[in-house]
């Protein structure tokens, strides 16, 4: 398994390999060397010795800039992360980091410069000049931090520590019981394919990409087999296209039992093959189409501040209210860690708090 930011990898033959920058050629391109050992500790020591043994760069050697670093770092992670993750990193680098920090030699990067970058993005980071949220700015800083760790292993440089902003915790929107009952009634009235898809997500907790990637081969008479996701990604040619790929994580591969009341609707819309959701012009319905359709449904129901992902949060909350144990719910949602389920997706209603408090007795 690769060690993030250190240019150290475990090879298929069992050995560990560490890469380091040997020098810079006349054309300004970096030249790399590799060392090998039978353990991570040994290969890291060899890598460090090679870096320390290098002579100082000759006068006139081009300085390594943040732009150089980001190019090298992106190249190092491209084959080790999902394409969607790589595109996210690439977008952060192109839209935020290069325009403001790309010119800077790494030797001149200071903590004050990073703080100024974070403050500027916080105030004017959107494409329309508006502010970015602290969470979004932290996403940018995390990318910078990973690249700076990479620089330590690749170039032997010690760069300033990237400090994240303090974030205020905001609970995601969750449908109340009344809102969910109203939405369910709306979906069941004049049921069509997309209303069926929303109903399926509301009572199984599927992510929008998982729902769009679902085929009838994945739908058994009693359960859904979640084994892929759909998203629109930009290709190397600059154009975007729909891609069906592995799910978000290994734990996202799961089998979700269907509630009994959904089974008649599943059979009503079942086809011999193909995607569960589709349009007149396409054999599938991509996530943004489903999100747009749901936005219109939410507006029809008078639901404000609600997104498709709200359905997942609402599902998790209803499950807790129904007495699901945390481990079972975590596996249904496809989480690797129960803490993620409890901290991010479970929201206690005031009614539930009242019910719990009512159980107390005077001693």
Strand percent estimate: 5-15%
| CATH-level-4 superfamily name of the largest domain | Intergrase catalytic core
Give the CATH architecture of the largest domain.
Answer: Orthogonal Bundle
Largest sheet: 3 strands, antiparallel
Spans of at least 5 consecutive residues whose pLDDT stays below 50 are 1-5
Q: Care to count the β-strands?
A: 7
CATH class descriptor of the largest domain:
Mainly Alpha
User: What is the residue-mean pLDDT, rounded to a whole number?
Assistant: 86
Helix content: 40-55%
For the largest sheet, list the strands in their spatial order. Answer: 1-2-3
SS element count, helices:
14
Q: Give the ordered list of helices and strands.
A: EEEHHHHHHHHEEEEHHHHHH
User: What is the approximate shape?
Assistant: elongated
C-alpha Rg (nearest Å)? 25 Å
The CATH topology assignment of the largest domain is hpI Integrase, Chain A
SS-based class: mainly alpha
Our measurement of the CA-to-CA distance between the termini, rounded to an integer number of angstroms, reads: 56 Å
């Amino acid at each position: 398994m690769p060690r993030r930011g250190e240019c150290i990898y475990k090879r298929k033959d069992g050995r560990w390999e560490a890469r380091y920058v040997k020098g810079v050629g006349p054309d300004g391109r970096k030249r790399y060397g590799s060392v090998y050992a039978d353990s991570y500790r040994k290969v890291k020591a060899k890598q460090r010795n090679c870096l320390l043994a290098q002579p100082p760069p000759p006068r006139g050697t081009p300085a390594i800039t943040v732009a150089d670093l980001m190019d090298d770092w992106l190249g190092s992670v491209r084959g080790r992360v999902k394409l969607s993750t790589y595109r996210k990193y690439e977008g952060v680098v192109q839209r935020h980091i290069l325009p403001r920090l790309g010119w800077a030699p790494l030797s001149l990067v200071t903590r004050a410069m990073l703080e100024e970058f974070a403050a500027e993005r916080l105030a004017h980071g959107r494409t329309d000049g508006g502010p970015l949220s602290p969470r979004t700015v932290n996403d940018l800083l995390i990318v910078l931090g990973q690249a700076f760790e990479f620089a330590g292993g690749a170039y032997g440089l010690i760069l300033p520590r990237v400090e994240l902003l303090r974030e205020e915790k905001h609970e995601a929107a969750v449908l109340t019981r009344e809102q969910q009952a109203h939405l369910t009634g709306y979906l069941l009235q004049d049921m069509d394919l997309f209303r069926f898809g929303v109903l399926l997500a509301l009572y199984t907790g599927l992510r929008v990409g998982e729902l769009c990637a679902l085929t009838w081969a994945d739908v058994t008479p009693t359960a859904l087999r979640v084994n892929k996701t759909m998203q629109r990604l930009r290709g190397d040619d600059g154009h975007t296209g729909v891609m069906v790929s592995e799910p978000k994580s290994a734990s996202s591969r799961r089998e979700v039992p269907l509630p009994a009341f959904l089974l008649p609707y599943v059979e009503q819309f079942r086809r011999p093959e193909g995607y569960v959701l589709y349009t007149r012009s396409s054999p599938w319905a991509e996530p943004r189409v489903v999100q747009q359709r749901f936005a219109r449904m939410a507006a029809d129901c008078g639901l404000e501040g609600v997104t498709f992902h709200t359905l997942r949060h609402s599902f998790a909350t209803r499950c807790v209210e129904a007495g699901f144990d945390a481990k079972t719910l975590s596996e249904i949602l496809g989480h690797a860690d129960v803490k993620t389920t409890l901290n991010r997706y479970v929201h206690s209603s005031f009614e539930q708090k009242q019910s719990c408090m009512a159980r107390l007795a005077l001693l």
